[in-house]
Amino acid sequence: MALAGAAALAFLTFKLTGSNRNGGAPSSTHDGLQIELIPNAQPSPAVPAAPPSPLSLDPKSASQLQVLSEILASRNDNDPRMDSELRSLSPTAKAALREKYRALAPEDRNGRGTIIFLLGREISGPEELSFFSDVLNEMPCLSLSDCSVDARSAPGEDSHHDSGVEVTLAYPQLVALKSIENLLGRIRAEGLTPALRDAALKAIEAGKASPVPLVRKRAAELEKKITS
Amino acid sequence: MNALRLVLPLILLMAAPAFAVNFDKSLPKDVAAQMKADLEFVATLQGEQVSPLHQQIFGAMEGQGYAKWFDSRIKLIGFNPCGGGNAVACVIPFMGSDKMWVTNNYIKFSHPQISRLMVVYHEARHSEVKNGNWSHATCPVPFRDESGNDMKSIWTGAKLAGEAACDRTPFGSYGSSTILLKNVSKFCSSCTEKVKMDAGIYSDDQLGRITDRKAKEQMLNDFGTN
């Protein structure tokens, strides 16, 4: 009876003492609850890396990079400047954004995905899609706390909390695919160059070959959607 | 001076926080600040229309409505590791169904904003004692995706088949948060393009946890995508 009751509540009840995955990592107590601290964790993804020197950018591009840094630091994806100011990106601004993407910690999934989103809605030439192919080919981020560490938890971890994690781990790649889908919609509507269409299809192929299962799945779904 | 006496209460009323929920002092300041900011964002959501299922669960797409919905379910937000791992938030019935617990992952992990809110509203649904806390259904055995591959936990790598990590109704925690996000993606007029895109990406993924064919069909019809 006790076991049945425990099982019934398993999805909602949790261990009140966390396990120490790092064998000797320090921990602290808080209101009697053991809280696990993770040493050597990556710096907080909320603090963006310094953007490229503003001296190398024209004033508008420098301002756009500054606005992006502010938005990422605030974690407010609904900042209206996302749509009002981070548009009409010059080639210089796009290059600076690609540099910023590479400079961001890989664990900063939302930061990286935001940059892909901004670049994705302004794709104007086939050469820009090679960056998207590179993003789609990236190695998987293995965990949200440290992309290089496959920090799987002990068995019995409540898998109902997984929901959404897989998407966030693949977020930059999924945004890349969404951007390509939107681009192909624009191509159909506006009749843009075949070279752009071919580059978009090539990027989808890169997605289908991604080392990330969810990305491969979404790329295949996208290909099926556009060819049907 | 008389004009100020008339206007000042109005200004104070407008400046009052939209959500009435209390934040326990156990919650780290930065986590509390982020959650308050996210809830303030929810309070700004506006849209001219919603799907029938959204209307049934949440009413219109109107920030104050979402705030009332949340406040009627959750009275206190506190700090708890929620079992560790990936958890961002949880409801623990034996510690009070009207309390939500939030972990450091709320700010440690780089989830898009709408994804954090998806979790918050998912967990808030679990507070409904009269609905059995909307317990999750056991995922079917086998549990496969459209390509015939086993659905697995991204975290443990274990198959989800047989785990209490699915829903068989549109009205449970997965279903209701999916409906919320899908409506944001389609109808939100106060959202940035990024928020709408994110809402679409995450809601499409969540739909995979709805394992009853009729429930899923009902939701797809509701979204106008069937």
3D architecture notes:
The complex is a heterodimer of chains A (about 230) and B (about 230). Helices cover about 50% and strands about 5% of the residues of chain A. Chain A has 10 helices and 2 strands; from the N terminus they run H-E-E-H-H-H-H-H-H-H-H-H. Chain A has helices at about 1-10, 60-75, 80-85, 90-105, 110-120, 130-135, 165-170, 170-190, 195-210, 215-225; strands at about 25-30, 35. Chain A has a two-stranded antiparallel ribbon. In chain A, strand 1 (about 25-30) and strand 2 form a beta hairpin. In chain A, helix 4 runs antiparallel to helix 5. The longest helix of chain A is centred in the last third of the chain and has 20 residues, at about 170-190. Chain B has about 230 residues and is mainly alpha-helical. Chain B is about 45% helix and about 5% strand. Chain B contains 9 helices and 4 strands, in the order αβαααβββααααα. In chain B, strands 1-2-4-3 form a 4-stranded mixed beta sheet, covered by helices on one side. In chain B, a hairpin with an 8-residue loop joins strand 3 (about 90) and strand 4. In chain B, helix 7 runs antiparallel to helix 8. The radius of gyration of chain B is 18 Å and the shape is globular.
Secondary structure: elements and pairs:
The complex is a heterodimer of chains A (228) and B (226).
Chain A: H1 2-8, E1 27-30, E2 33-36, H2 59-74, H3 81-84, H4 91-103, H5 109-120, H6 129-136, H7 165-169, H8 171-190, H9 194-208, H10 213-227
Helix pairs in contact in A: 2-4, 4-5, 5-8, 6-9, 8-9, 8-10, 9-10
Chain B: H1 2-15, E1 22-23, H2 29-42, H3 52-57, H4 63-71, E2 76-79, E3 89-90, E4 99-102, H5 105-108, H6 113-125, H7 173-187, H8 193-206, H9 213-223
Parallel strand pairs in B: 1-2, 2-4
Antiparallel strand pairs in B: 3-4
